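Hi R.,

As promised on Friday, here is the backbone we talked about, encoded as structure tokens. Could you run it through your design pipeline when you get a chance and send me back a sequence?
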């Protein structure tokens, strides 16, 4: 086999392995080898070879019923990437916090929950919400999580909530769309009611800026 043919075969194997990871990531109940083979359009033997390599690197695992699930190696890579995501989002978050006079945050999906990956507080307000990086909450509660769910449905507009995560707190957020492999939202949280029209425009603009910075 010549060099070009070997390179083509290697690229095809890599492509199949990445497609398999995406398939397993999108299957909450895991996948059988047969299901994976059918969706990839390849034979079971080829899937077994991919699974062997990906399992050796911790990217996949087999559960008690033999179904394929993501391995801890994927989480390790995700955590290594998080500082880069936060760094890319900080300029937009700083602008948003100053514009809205409220605490701005980038929230990402991890383990089925929303996690505050980066938080920026406004510099000129007397009082603002203290929101810790690493804070977790269900996606069904709070503007940040609800915006992510809206983004899954293809909606790009802002979402507002009141008192869902903390009594007396108001939030407005918009999904960050168009970054492959990333489910996230950007928003603000305040101790006083927010002008949803004005702040909604600001968080939507921030979401677009973050998409541009991370793409």
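Update: got your reply. Pasting your designed sequence below so it's all in one thread:
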């Amino acid at each position: 086999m010549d060099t070009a043919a070997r390179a083509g075969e290697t690229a095809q194997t890599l492509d199949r392995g990445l497609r398999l990871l995406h398939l397993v990531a999108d299957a909450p109940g895991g996948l059988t080898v047969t299901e994976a083979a059918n969706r990839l359009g390849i034979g079971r033997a080829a899937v077994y070879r991919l699974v062997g390599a990906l399992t050796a690197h911790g990217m996949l695992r087999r559960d008690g019923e033999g179904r394929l699930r993501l391995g801890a190696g994927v989480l390790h890579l995700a955590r290594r990437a998080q500082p880069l995501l936060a760094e890319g989002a900080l300029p937009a978050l700083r602008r948003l916090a100053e514009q809205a006079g409220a605490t701005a945050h980038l929230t990402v999906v991890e383990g089925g929950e929303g996690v505050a990956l980066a938080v920026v507080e406004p510099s000129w307000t007397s009082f603002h919400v203290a929101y810790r990086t690493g804070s977790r909450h269900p996606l069904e509660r709070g503007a940040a999580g609800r915006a992510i769910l809206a983004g899954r449905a293809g909606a790009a507009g802002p979402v507002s909530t009141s008192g869902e995560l903390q009594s007396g707190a108001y939030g407005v957020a918009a999904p960050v769309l168009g970054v492959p492999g990333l489910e996230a939202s950007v928003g603000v949280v305040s101790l006083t009611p927010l002008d949803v029209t004005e702040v909604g425009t600001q968080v939507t603009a921030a979401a677009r800026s973050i998409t541009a910075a991370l793409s």
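One thing I noticed while checking it: The chain is about 45% helix and 20% strand.

Thanks again,
M.
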